[in-house]
Structure formats: C-alpha cells, structure tokens
Design a protein that fits this description.
Chain lengths: ~140, ~325
C-alpha cells in the first residue's frame, strides 16, 4: 500500500452543547482535510451521546471537540464517561475552545489528551492529531 | 484482531463491534474476505440507492426516509459516499451532518465512506459495507452517492431500487434525461417543490413524457415520480410507497434474486481486484530485478491455474 493510503486517519470534529460558534471547528476540519485526513463533521449543538454514537459508527481514530460556551467541564465529563461506557476509550479525544487555564488540568485528568486554546497554530493541531491517530491505528493493527 | 468475536457481537446488534467490523472491510481486503465468509447469508434485505444532481437535497431526503422507515419498524443502515480531494487526498465527509439527529436511534446506523481518490469508480469498501449491513440484519440499506458521472451509475448497479433526485426548474431540456444518472431511476423524486410548485409540475411533465416515450424505465417497470419537500416533510409517505411498490415488483418478478446475484458478482470482482493490487503494492523488489518483472511474475503465479499466460510478454525461444 502507498503511504497515504495506510496513513489515512479518520477524525470526528464535533461541536458539543448549546453553542453555534462553529468557525473554529470548521477551520480545523478544513486544515485536517487539506493534510490528508478523512474528516467527519457533526454540525452544531450535539449532545455527548450523539458525538459518541457518531464516533463509534464511523469508527474514527480521533475525536476533536470544540466548545466555546463555557459548559466544557460538565459536557466533557459526560463525554468521557460515555466513551468508557461504550468501551471506546482507545479513541483519543482533543478539546479546543475558550477554556480557562485553571480548567485545563482537571479536563486532562478526565482523559482528554490535549486542550487547544485560541491562538494555537493549525500546524501544531494537525501534528498532534496525526500522532494520536497513528498510535491508535498501530494498536488496532492497521 | 479477533474477527470472530467482533462478528458475534455485531450480529447481536453491538454498535461498537459493527463500526469496527466495517473498518476491517474498508481497510483490509483479506480481513474483508474472512468477514464476508463468516457472516451468515440473509435474504430479503433491500438495497436502496439514492443519487441525483448535486444540491438536490439527497441527504435531507434520506434523513426523512430514515425517520419514516424507522417509525414503521424497519432497521435502517446508510453507506454515505463522499468524494476525497484530488490534491490532499483528504476528505470532508459531510452527509452525516443532515442525518446526525438519528445518531442515537438504535435502529439506524450511518457510516461515511470517502471515494479515496483511487479510480473514482466503484469502491470495494462501499459495496462490501452494503453486504455486511444486509447480513447483520438491517432491512433497508441505503447507499447515498455523490451524484456525478459514470462512477455513480456504477455504484447504483448494486442497488435493488434506485431513487434519482432532481429539483424543479431543471430538466427543461429533455436531452438532460438521456444519459448518466438521470436515466437509471426506478423512482424519480422532484424535491424542493416548496420552492417552485409550478416548476415542479413542469419537471413532472418532462419526466412523464420521457417515460411515455420509453426513454426511462426498463424491464417492464414503469418508473414512479414523486414530488417531495424534504425540508417540510412533504410527500415522504408517497415516496416510501413508490419504493416499496418497486421492491414488491422485484420480489414477484424474480428481479430481487437477480439483483442479489449481480451484487455478489460485483463484490467478488472488486475483491479480486483489490487483493491483487494490494499484493502488487507489497511486492519487494529483489536487487537486479525491476518492478515490471516482479509484477508480471506475481500475476503469472496467481493466475497460472486459470489463465494460460505462457506466451505473454516473454520473448519466444
């Protein structure tokens, strides 16, 4: 197989909660696509249940969540719980958005791999997502 | 990876296992052949292709169909095909956005597939996924395609019932109906009628004329035409009625069995192609030999039993 074919990483980009600010999510989705990822975008105002269901039906390698509403603590807690309930905790989760610095550590303790704040370069995001996706692929034996 | 366990779980309706099984089918042709062999065959599932011009509202219409079919107690699966970029080979699979409201419905399963920019034609993954869904117990398996070109016509060959979606205001020119996806429908949908009721009637007339003139429809089936507004949830029951009528027609005339055989044949051909190409991609070239030599050697070895290639590409002695 060619390199691009095996590396094709599938990413779910999700807007979680009552939050219609989707420019950031779309910019990231587009950057990932342009870097060769397969990107599935859920659209806005998703519940944690909808996001996890989409992730397992599509069997994505990475979940990227965008929240700008301030409800990240509650929503991410539920999302990570569900991920474990479904037995899909092998899927790495990233969070991006307006997250206060003191909240970052507690969110990471929930199992979120990295939190991207406003101003993070797209290059950095793409690289971290690629790394996480490749690792999951390897564990799954692809 | 333990395929047997995944298959057992997926047959019981486990969605995580189903998702992972589909990935095997998508990424690994050998694994796919094992999965297809191990899954029990099943009769009666109905493959419905949704195609038509870009922007005609296929995904929204399909979303409505899912609601109505699920309400009637059917288990529904969707294989949504989206193009991948010719430049980055990445893809933004967007069909799901319009169907995401069904994500948590236990009787609906949606999976997106990119065309992977390979040959642009029929992808093994798409066809195999349809088969897997059918065998896993889904009653209605929808395949939604991008709606352009010959690749689309090819994909639709695996469907029992083909639904072609158009919108009012187009199709003034009867020539537009004569080639490509517009001529393959078993059911024609004029969607977005809320936007232009008069235009919808006109399009209806053109379609009717084409059917009367014998330009549309084949094998004794007279295509149905349905006017819908997916956004307003209008005409969906009529559409389901038309689709079910066609299914009944297929079952009664033996067309269903023939379609199933056709699907299997297409699947086997695509699998053979994919396995062979993968084998070629994995060739290790020994020093002193070139890819051309090695590739031909491999092809000869694989096909030796069935095809006499002794004379091919070898200088006569």
């Amino acid at each position: 197989m060619t390199i691009t074919e095996t590396e094709r990483i599938k990413v779910l980009v999700a807007k979680l909660g009552l939050d219609g600010h989707d420019r950031g999510a779309k910019v990231v989705a587009r950057a990932l696509r342009d870097s060769g990822f397969e990107v599935i975008y859920t659209g806005i105002r998703q519940t944690p249940e909808q996001v996890i269901e989409a992730a397992i039906q599509e069997d994505v390698d990475v979940i990227g969540v965008s929240i700008l509403s301030g409800a990240h603590m509650t929503l991410m807690k539920r999302l990570m719980e569900l991920l474990r309930e479904y037995g899909a905790e092998d899927i790495p989760v990233f969070l991006g958005g307006t997250i206060p610095i003191p909240d970052i550590e507690p969110i990471k303790r929930m199992g979120v791999r990295e939190v991207f704040l406003p101003g993070t370069s797209l290059k950095e995001i793409v690289e971290m997502v690629r790394q996480a996706g490749l690792e999951r692929r390897k564990r799954r034996g692809w | 990876m333990d395929h047997t366990r995944l298959i057992e779980k997926a047959l019981k309706g486990d969605r995580l296992a189903t998702g992972r099984l589909l990935t095997i089918v998508e990424r690994d042709p050998r694994g796919a052949s094992v999965v297809l062999e191990s899954l029990p065959d099943r009769e009666g599932y109905h493959v419905i292709g949704i195609t038509g011009i870009a922007g005609s509202g296929k995904s929204t219409l399909l979303s409505r169909l899912l609601t109505h079919y699920a309400d009637r107690g059917y288990r529904c699966a969707v294989v949504a095909i989206d193009p991948s970029s010719a430049y980055s080979r990445g893809a933004l699979l967007g069909d799901r956005i319009r169907m995401q409201m069904h994500a948590t419905n236990p009787n609906i399963f949606i999976r997106s597939v990119s065309t992977r920019g390979l040959k642009g034609g029929l992808s093994f993954a798409g066809v195999a996924m349809v088969d897997v869904f059918g065998r896993l117990g889904y009653d209605k398996v929808f395949i939604e395609s991008i709606g352009v070109g010959q690749a689309d016509v090819d994909i639709m060959r695996i469907a029992d019932t083909i639904v072609v979606v158009t919108v009012p205001g187009l199709g003034d020119d009867i020539q537009a109906l004569k080639a490509g996806v517009m001529e393959i429908g078993d059911v024609y949908v004029i969607n977005k009628v809320d936007k232009d009721r008069e235009g919808a009637n006109k399009t209806m007339e053109y379609l009717l004329f084409a059917i009367e003139a014998g330009e549309l429809g084949h094998k004794g089936w007279r295509p149905r035409i349905v006017k819908t507004s997916a956004v307003l949830d209008e005409g969906i029951d009529e559409l389901i009625e038309a689709i079910e009528e066609h299914y009944k027609y297929l079952v009664e005339t033996g067309g269903y069995g023939a379609g199933r055989e056709r699907r299997r044949e297409i699947l086997v051909r695509l699998l053979a192609e994919k396995m062979l190409i993968d084998a070629l991609d994995n060739i290790e070239i020994e020093p002193g030999k070139d890819l051309y030599q090695e590739a031909l050697e491999l092809l000869r070895r694989v096909t030796a039993q069935y095809i006499d290639m002794s004379g091919a590409d070898r200088p006569s002695r």
